[in-house]
What we know:
single chain; mainly alpha
Amino acid sequence: MEQKRLDGAEQAVLHAVRRDSAVFDKRVLRSTTGEVIFKEGQLIQVYDATQEMSFTTTRKLLLGWSAPR
């Protein structure tokens, strides 16, 4: 029974992630400039792409996303 609860919780999280990313993608694609303007109170995270092109193994341990703002 505990495993069924865990599976249900996992599915709920996966659904929420898919729904949120679909809404975000729709907002970006709808914009002609590709710019998204966030309103006060919205939760955002910023991706740090500076480490993306690095070939060092330490980059794997660094966080790519900022803390929620």
